[in-house]
User: Which sequence fits this backbone?
């Protein structure tokens, strides 16, 4: 599974980088997402679910969140 480490950046940079990754993603593709920014840890899972993607929290601590993303079979148009 591919990994996208967004821990070095603060909002809105993680979301921007994730959106760029999603542009080239294939339906059904999986991605491990690592987040540290408190705003991103809250906003990114909500954004992905609104877009119809499957999101599973793998590990959560006060300073870090690991998510497993599965790209929706029919990605919504942006």
Assistant:
């Amino acid at each position: 599974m591919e990994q996208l480490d967004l821990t070095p950046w603060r909002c809105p940079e993680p979301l921007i980088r994730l959106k760029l990754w999603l542009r080239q993603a294939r339906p059904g593709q999986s991605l491990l997402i690592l987040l540290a920014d408190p705003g991103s840890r809250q906003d990114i899972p909500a954004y992905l679910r609104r877009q119809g993607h499957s999101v599973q929290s793998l590990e959560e601590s006060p300073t870090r969140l690991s998510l497993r993303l599965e790209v929706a079979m029919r990605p919504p148009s942006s």
Q: What stands out?
A: The chain has a mean pLDDT of 94. Strands lie at 2-5, 30-35, 54-60, 65-70. The CA atoms of residues 34 and 59 lie 9 Å apart.
